[in-house]
Amino acid sequence: MRTGAAGDARDMRRIPKWIAIAAVSALLGAGGCGTDQPPVCDSLAAVQATMNQVRNANVAENGLTYLETNLQQLKLDLRQLATDATAQFAPEVEVVRAAANQFSASLDTARADLDVTALAGVRATLGTLQNSVRNLGDAMSGTC
Predict the structure, then answer these.
(1) What is the Cα–Cα distance from 47 to 28, expressed in whole angstroms?
(2) From CA 40, how far away is CA 140, in angstroms rounded?
(3) More exposed terminus of the chain, fewer Cβ within 10 Å: N or C?
(4) What stretches of 3-115 show up as alpha helix (H) in DSSP?
(5) Is the pTM higher than 0.90?
(6) What is the mean pLDDT of each run of 10 residues along the chain (144 residues)?
């Protein structure tokens, strides 16, 4: 049996070690539960994450090119989502794709002639795109 400060210090170091092991074990055990979701859920998450990047882009700081880059990524994410969603969510995916194309066209217009009207068009089509992504997420909420 240990006595004294040295023994107490060693015992105190063991407690955090066991807590860490228990926490890691719990996380690993819980991680297996998430595998029940279909691949379409990962694709939806990618679309939503890219949409957040588009929405949060600081155009004054990064310019319209930054938006275009994120829009291209969104289109790639939508293509993967369409593949994973097959027919079940095809109408909703198509609405998002159409909104992304409208947003792309408004960016092209703004780049060609940057004025208040063009920027208002970008803002309006961005709102439409955001709503379509939100509606897609709502439609898929029972699956994901």
Answers:
(1) 27
(2) 9
(3) N
(4) 5-31, 39-55, 59-85, 90-112
(5) no
(6) 50 42 39 68 96 89 87 95 90 96 95 92 96 96 92
